[in-house]
Structures are given as C-alpha cells and as structure tokens.
Automatic annotation (TrEMBL):
Name of this protein: TIGR03086 family protein
All residue ranges annotated as the Mycothiol-dependent maleylpyruvate isomerase metal-binding domain in the record: 13-137
Pfam families membership: MDMPI_N
Species classification: Bacteria, Bacillati, Actinomycetota, Actinomycetes, Micromonosporales
InterPro entries attached to this UniProt entry: CHP03086, DinB/YfiT-like, Maleyloyr_isom, MDMPI_metal-binding
Organism: Asanoa ishikariensis
SUPFAM superfamilies according to UniProt: DinB/YfiT-like putative metalloenzymes
Entry superkingdom: Bacteria
GO molecular function: metal ion binding
Gene3D superfamilies assigned to the protein according to its UniProt record, in alphabetical order: dinb family like domain (1.20.120.450)
Amino acid sequence: MSENITISGWDVLDEAHRVLRATVAGVAAGDWDRPTPCTDWNATQVLQHAAGDQRGFAWAITGGDAPTENPFAPSGVLTQDPTAYLNPHLDAAAAAWATVDKSAETAPTPLPLGPLPTWVGSGAAALDAAVHAWDIAVATGQPSPLTPELARSLMKVAVEIVEPLRAFAYAPAIATNPTDDDVTVLLAYLGRRSDWSA
C-alpha cells in the first residue's frame, strides 16, 4: 500500500478505509470476476461501486471531482491495478472528511437523505466502505475484515440511515438470534448472511 494514505481523523472511517484497502490488496488477480453477496455484481463491480461512493462523499463535502461513472451501474472493467484504482477515491474521501469540524451539527452527504448529523455522515461513508470490503473478502476467499468492535460502531450508524434507504441501497433485513455475534447482526440488518458463499 501507498505510504501517503490520507487519514480523515474520523476513527471509524479510517478503519473502514484501512480494511477496504487491505481486502482489495489481498484479492488474487484471477478472482476479480467472482460473484459477490451483491446480487448481479462481481468483485470488480463491487470495487467500482465502493470507490465511486467514496468519491461521492468527497464531492458532496468539497464540490470537487464527482464520480466519473454511476456507482450503481459499475462496468466491471478496470484499466489499472485495483489498488491503484481505489486509493485516489479513498484519499479524496478522507481528505474531504478531514475538513469537517467534529463540532459541526451536520455534514453534507451524497445520500438521498441529504445532510446528516456529522458523526452519522462520516459513519455512513465508513459503513459503505467496510461492508463492501466484506463483500469482496468473502467473494475472494479472504477472512472477514469486520471485527466485533467495528461492527458495533457501524451498527449505530446503520440504524440511523438504512431504513429510509432500504429499497434503494439495502436488501430486506434477515432475522437474527439473540446468540448471534455483532458482525452477524450487522450483516443481517443490511440484508446479508454472514455464512454467504458463492
């Protein structure tokens, strides 16, 4: 990974970016066309979607470069190394969030919900990055990048934003059991099964 990684100063977002970078770096060259938990998208398309979403958060905050393709219609074609493709998008998002004062009441987002409480906005960017890291990881035979601590932090955000976006960006929630762990509970709330396999 690049040694010039931009840090946002928002801990959950920085951890989500870290796990997405690590997951992408861990994908074998021949695995980018593998199916993922995101129905109809392969690993390349999930990467493009995740990168485009981060660019969207940066654009909402700074008014800089918008995503160059629709994150919800990824082409599945990359013309450069996946890590080299991803890093500028994550750096742009981190640099944008680094300009957001933690005491600010709200922050702009590209979501249909519009501006959100600042911690929720940064958390929404983190949720997107971390969960798509999980999608790519399980699709390509890597361990889950979600720790219980990260899952708990992301769940606090998920309950703030997911229901209004359920038909747009998230599948119906899956029932859980009281004994399920934090990662399973988060994934189920987002419509994913923790035991998913291709």
